[in-house]
Each structure stands twice: as structure tokens, then as C-alpha cells.
Amino acid sequence: MNSSEELINVVTLVDENGHEVQFDHLMTFDHEKKRYIALMPMEEVEGVGEDEVLIMQIKKDDNGEDTYVPVENPVLLEEVFDTFLELMEELDEEED
């Protein structure tokens, strides 16, 4: 692999219409003792911009499996996104 290739960790989710949609898993992180995942669509997704990051909370279902739940509260979403940006900045600084 040459240095210009990026590793992509693909996460496939099923939308409300039953269609599979692939996302690039950017990061899993914690914010105020809750777990979140940051995803970037690898294909066009209705309601999500081309360079937009999708952040979802990770919760356990009744079977103990991880499920991804949208963050509905706009204030919380902004806080979680700020945490994501800070962590991405730290990663960028480590790479330099």
C-alpha cells in the first residue's frame, strides 16, 4: 500500500426504506459517559450533504447488540460534534 491510499472501515446501515447504505467509519468516541460513532456516507444519502459527518449514539438493544440512534437534541448534537472535532484535531496533530 502506498502512502496516498487511505484505510476505510466500512459500516453498512439499513435506511427506513430497507436500502443498505455504506459509510466510512471515521471514529468511535465517548462524550459525557456515552458512546458515539462518526460516519461519512460513501454514496449519496437523502438529507445528508456530500461532506457531512453523521453522528449517532451507540446503545445496546435488548439482545446486547450495538444499535445506532440519531442524536435528536440539537444542543447535544453540537456538543458531541465539538468533541468529535477536538479529537480529529488531536489525531491530525499526532500525524504531523
Strand content: 35-45%
Strand order of the largest sheet: 1-2-3-4-5
The dominant shape is globular
Structural class: alpha+beta
The tally of helices reads: 1
Q: Helix share of residues?
A: 10-25%
Unreliable stretches: 1-5
The largest pleated sheet is described as: 5 strands, antiparallel
- E-strand count: 5
Cα-atom radius of gyration = 14 Å
End-to-end Cα distance: 20 Å
Average pLDDT figure: 88
**Helix/strand order:** EEEEEH
Structural summary, described in words:
This protein has about 100 residues and is α+β, with helices and mostly antiparallel strands. It has one helix and five strands. Strands 1-2-3-4-5 form a five-stranded antiparallel β-sheet. A hairpin with a 5-residue loop joins strand 4 (about 55-60) and strand 5.
Reconstruct the topology from this structure:
Layout: E1 10-14, E2 20-31, E3 34-41, E4 54-60, E5 66-70, H1 74-95
Q: What is the structure about, briefly put?
A:
With 96 residues, the protein is of the alpha+beta class. It has one helix at 74-95; strands at 10-14, 20-31, 34-41, 54-60, 66-70. The protein is globular, with a radius of gyration of 14 Å.
List keywords for this structure.
single chain; 96 residues; alpha+beta; 39% strand; disordered N terminus
